[in-house]
Design brief:
- The structure is a single chain.
- The protein is an all-alpha fold.
- The chain has a single domain, classed as Growth Hormone, Chain: A (Up-down Bundle).
- 70% of the residues lie in helices and 0% in strands.
- α1 runs antiparallel to α8 and α3 packs parallel to α5.
Length: 238
Amino acid sequence: MARAGEGGGDVLSRMVLAGLFLLAATTGMVDATTFLGLGRVFTANMTGNVLLLGFSSTTRPDGYTQNTILYGGLAALLAFVSGALLGAAVAGRRDATARFRAGFGTEWVFLATAAVLLFDTGATRGGLRYVVLVLFGLSMGFQSSVVRRMGVPDINTTVLTTTMAGLASDVVAVAGRAARVARRVATVAFLFLGAALGAVLEEQGVRWSALGALAALSLGVLLMGFGGALRPGGDLSV
């Protein structure tokens, strides 16, 4: 990808960043789908998922038993970790040629399969629910590892705690002139917007929020591809 300052470089850099922001929106939609529609489980936000596993030690009067949250949360956690491991392997080591297309392509397959399964009315309960949770967890684990392998500064599409803490601490450390503030704020905003839109779509049916996540992922990857970030040796100096 051309560097900023070279012909069209700024435009290409913005396309890559826009694609990454859409991946943050994908994360919000996926967690809206699984938390609201599949029994109070996160498949991207593992901090929240670990907390929910702790909360599952008791039964709350909201209709969700500890077993519903416990087994679903464990399935999502193990799937996310497995997806992150596999995603890192597929994307390639840092001393080897990156395979971003393969990484995002595999994520897309997992997410698309989960969305298709949700057209089955029985997918929100029973054994099929765990299959869907695992697929979502695998897809988010892949995304986390592939984006990490891309190494774009101050961009994390699945974990925002460190992003927000880093932004706040940097503002203090550099007297209000933190670097790359806009992209960090945009990442938080897009995840929020994705979660909000996912919640609205989930009210119409859990399949629609899943399809929304798939659409956001597809558009995001397409933009990054046009920006030149996905080809082997692509320049990620954005």
